[in-house]
Design brief:
By secondary structure, this protein is α+β, with helices and mostly antiparallel strands. The chain has three domains: about 5-335, no CATH class; about 340-580, no CATH class; about 585-640, no CATH class. Helix content is about 50%, strand content about 10%. Strands 1, 2, 5, 6 and 7 form a five-stranded mixed sheet that branches. It has a four-stranded antiparallel sheet with strand order 10-11-3-13, with helices on both faces. The protein starts with a helix and ends with a helix. The relative contact order is 0.07.
Length: about 650
């Protein structure tokens, strides 16, 4: 059925009525704090405009739905070129265009997306993990990770092809797309409005403070549109269905895996080079039929070996449209740097995360996240948790780093936290976690991996990840490299339920998160308290009120009359409490010419108890019977003649 016939049929269907609750839900669901549209309007303007405006918006949208026509003025997008963080900044091909749509069109797209998903999700391939409710890109990553681990157990090599489609969203043929949308079961009245959205569309480019003239957009779906990812998934659905129906690929038990996809990001796997070429040919033919280009120089082949000791075989030659694909040692896939072995994948991903986190941390230094004389520690720690920590731990719940890589991550985190807390690098490690409320990297990865496992448990039985989980937990022993066996050990570590029990009767997302958080907090709280007891320097650091996730009371400035002054004093407090504030007792340990005796009283050893309990606020001694109280003039005179 062609586009014209579909349109004629759809015009005979009744129009859809949109209730006020749906419009309010759409307004609340659109992300806040984003750029203004071409008219200078943001979602906050609509959100706080009042009930009267929402009633007017309700009438306006229903009139558009009734007439099945959208005014051209709301089809003008504001396109901002965003650098891809690679290549030459002066070359346009290293920029990605992100379009900011008018707010009214975003609200309409949200409503239409509900109708689109009601049909498309029923037909969606189990290989597609992108932009789908209750899944994430990591669901696709875990499938590929388990293939790595399965072939480590088998001691066999396999091959990965990572496909790169040039400007995938921008070259979609609209009539072909709309035909697929109709076949997916989308409501005909909504189909007409999706068609209307892509008619007479225009765009303007924003560069710095300059905005270009309008120009027409005749093809593609807009990157940044609420509908765009869902529409593209429909566009390539037939490709994934074809992969599902082939018998080529890798096997985990009786489960065949030959591809995983996250929107336009497609990875193909096979243990046989000839089968791999066959699967690539299917993808190449589909791209030709649907008028998008698979780039042979950016689509790469990775030859995966079961271990670092295994010698690489002769390079395989895989072709796209008679062009040889490059063989790569490592290439990014869904934020994880995939390499020729599982260990090399871990090493490369950890190094990448540390590099990105360091860059993020340094970018916040100018905002005051540099420790002493900067923001107060509580605020700086919150910045770290918001902007640095997610980058540092991204994807690690999938690859589950070894102790060597955990040490690298831990070292980086401790260094940043010690700088924020203004304590020297020699400060005991438990004190950093106790004062900041941040758990060690190992605990963070355990928490994220257990939450990912719960997500898999809540998938439908026909989903690949759940099939694999059930098979591996039954068939594999404790020596297996399987990700699910590793999760079994983590569950045992925190005295949580058996993985088979969780698969058969999965708890809800929020109840599981709470259970995991409480178990991990309890485990690591006890571990940190026990470890801190081995440090004599931490005997004055109160550990009874430790609360993971919350800063120590020492860092609080909210209850003081002068928060600014208190923020400056905190760094001294933390040095004293961790025994890193330099006193005479410290100097004497490293310099034979120094004595531990206090130079002010010339009687007692200058340690923490002497420093805190003997000196008054004015810096004078108030132990009158033992040592006379000197004036500043007398003190300087005695100091000059060397009697103190």
């Amino acid at each position: 059925m062609d586009y014209v016939s579909i349109k004629r049929i759809s015009e005979h269907y009744a129009t859809r009525y949109v209730d006020l609750d749906t419009i309010e839900k759409a307004i609340k669901s659109i992300n806040k704090g984003k750029a203004e549209d071409v008219f200078g309007i943001s979602i906050e303007n609509v959100l706080y405009a009042g009930q009267q405006f929402k009633l007017f918006l309700h009438k306006l949208i229903n009139r558009m739905f009734q007439d099945r026509v959208l005014p051209d003025i709301i089809k003008t997008g504001l396109l901002s070129p965003v650098f891809k963080n690679k290549g030459d900044k002066n070359d346009a091909k290293y920029y990605r265009g992100i379009t900011v749509l008018p707010i009214l069109l975003k609200i309409i797209e949200f409503i239409l997306r509900i109708d689109l998903r009601s049909g498309s999700l029923k037909l969606q391939s189990i290989l597609q993990k992108g932009f789908t409710a209750n899944t994430s890109p990591l669901n696709a990553a875990i499938i590929l990770e388990e293939v790595y681990r399965e072939y480590m157990d088998k001691k066999l090599p396999f091959y990965i092809v990572l496909l790169d489609a040039k400007s995938a969203f921008d070259v979609v043929v609209l009539k072909m797309l709309l035909r697929k949308v109709y076949i997916s079961g989308t409501d005909p009245s909504s189909w007409l409005l999706i068609d209307e959205i892509h008619k007479n569309t225009e765009s303007r480019i924003k560069w710095s403070t300059e905005i270009s003239e309008k120009f027409s957009v005749l093809q593609g779906v807009k990157q940044g549109g609420l509908l765009s990812a869902d529409l593209y998934k429909v566009y390539i659905e037939d490709l994934l269905s074809t992969f599902e129906n082939t018998t080529s690929g890798c096997e985990i038990g009786e489960t065949l895996i030959n591809a995983v996809a996250c929107a336009d990001d497609v990875a193909i796997v096979s243990e046989n080079p000839h089968e791999l070429q066959y699967l690539v040919n299917i993808a190449a033919q589909y791209s030709e039929d649907h008028h998008y280009l698979l780039q042979p120089q950016k689509s790469v082949v990775i030859q995966v070996q079961p271990s670092n000791r295994k010698k690489s075989e002769d390079p395989v030659r895989i072709y796209i449209n008679n062009n040889a694909m490059p063989i790569s040692d490592k290439s990014p896939h869904l934020g994880i740097l995939r390499s020729t072995t599982s260990q090399k994948t871990q090493d490369a991903t950890v190094e990448q995360n540390i590099t990105k986190s360091r860059r993020a941390a340094y970018s916040l230094m100018s905002a005051g996240m540099h420790g002493e004389n900067g923001l107060d520690p509580s605020t700086a720690i919150q910045l770290f948790k918001t902007f640095v920590q997610p980058i540092l731990t991204y994807g690690l719940e999938v690859i589950l780093p070894t102790s060597k890589n955990l040490l690298k991550l831990e070292t980086f985190q401790k260094k940043i936290l010690k700088q924020i807390l203004s304590v020297p690098i020699s400060a005991p490690d438990p004190s950093v976690y106790i004062m900041s409320g941040i758990l060690p990297i190992e605990a963070q990865i355990d928490q994220k991996s257990l939450n990912l496992f719960n997500n898999i448990c809540n998938q439908n039985e026909n989903h690949l990840e759940k099939k694999i989980a059930r098979r591996q937990l039954i068939a594999k022993n404790q020596e297996s490299n399987s990700w699910f066996i590793a999760i079994k050990r983590v569950l045992f570590k925190y005295d949580l339920q058996s993985p088979i029990v969780l698969l058969n009767d999965p708890p809800t997302k929020y109840s599981w998160k709470k259970s995991v958080r409480l178990a991990i907090d309890h485990y690591w709280k006890n571990a940190l308290i026990q470890k801190s007891c081995t440090y004599k320097s931490l005997k004055y650091l109160g550990t009874s009120n430790i609360s993971p996730g919350k800063c120590h009371t020492l860092l609080s400035i909210g209850n003081t009359s002068d928060p600014t002054r208190e923020a400056v004093r905190i760094s001294v407090k933390l040095k004293v409490i961790t025994d890193t504030y330099i006193l005479q007792s410290h100097r004497s340990r490293y310099n034979l010419n120094e004595t531990p005796t206090c130079k002010l009283c010339d009687t007692d050893i200058e340690d923490r108890s002497h420093f805190l309990l003997t000196y008054s606020e004015e810096g004078k001694l108030y132990s009158i019977e033992v040592v006379p109280t000197w004036t500043e003039k007398e003190y300087q005179k005695k100091k000059k003649i060397g009697s103190i």
